[in-house]
């Protein structure tokens, strides 16, 4: 058998056992590489006489073309096999139902904080904040709250240490102290934030939200306080006229102090705010006590002003007809979906974004 026939036979045997692209690549180098069997035959040609060379070259080229085309064909076979396997593995099943998309909603408390902030910012108040963990001094002492005041009791307050020096703030009023200690009058701020008390029933949660207001300047009177709160309540409840009364009260940090009630009635089982012969308490307020001003290095002979504090959750419940306060903080998505606000559906009296 000639060399060429041997080569052809050995190719056939090896070719039949090729399993993948790598095998094929090895086979190709074995025959066509630098010292491959076919390449060596080409080198051999120079030693032949012209007549022999002509025949040999013809035969060698035929064999070479045949092997090259077989290798190429096999290579393509492997490639299409690979592609088909990929297509099979990476198939996308377009008949699968899509995953449901849940849109976020704005919690009524956040919504109401935004509404209140924009109403007060229209008349010059800026928003201040303070920490939830507060010192006993800022929360009580600086606010003129005596040692024997019931609010200081363990039954009311979450203390964070044995000595009762730090606590979870029981109201947003300590931010009055922080603001006045850190700046110079005049002050005109509102403070929305979380507050904490040992309390839990249908209308009380151990964590709730308050909004504090403070306006200190020269010649600020109770008249300013009344005008400011009247404006706020009308804007917040979106009513032109509101029945409102100041009831004498007591807070250690204000003198005189008052609680503000608004008139309401029940019509067809629903509460109507602003008219009627029933009264609803909505906030506490008063003229800032001179002791509070002294404690914060503000001269009470030169400056005076008013403060107020209200429960945000209660205002949200009243405005949006929500009955149970505890549901506010149960993080139930269905509840939020029902009572929450669409971020793009801006209520009429919300001016934070549109102006
Ligand atoms: N801090 C009071 C409370 O939590 C509310 C309050 C009443 C705040 C009168 C005030 C105020 O600023 O002047 O019950």
- N- to C-terminal separation? 98 Å
Secondary-structure element order, N to C: HHHHHEEHEHEEHEEEEHEHH
The CATH class label of the largest domain is Alpha Beta
Which cofactors or ions or other ligands sit in this model? Answer: 3,4-dihydroxyphenylalanine
Give the overall average pLDDT. 91
Question: Could you characterize what this model shows?
Answer:
The chain folds into 2 domains: 2-89; 108-339, Bira Bifunctional Protein, Domain 2 (BirA Bifunctional Protein, domain 2, 2-Layer Sandwich). The chain has 11 helices and 10 strands. Mean pLDDT is 91; it is low at 351-355. Helix 1 runs parallel beside helix 4 (50-89) and helix 5 (108-121) crosses helix 10 (312-320). It is rod-shaped. The protein is 39% helix and 21% strand. The strands form 2 sheets. Strands 1, 4, 5, 6, 7, 8, 9 and 10 form an 8-stranded mixed beta sheet that branches. Strands 2-3 form a two-stranded antiparallel ribbon. It is an alpha+beta fold and 355 residues long. It binds 3,4-dihydroxyphenylalanine. Residues 171, 173, 212, 251, 254, 284-286, 307-309 line the site of 3,4-dihydroxyphenylalanine (DAH).
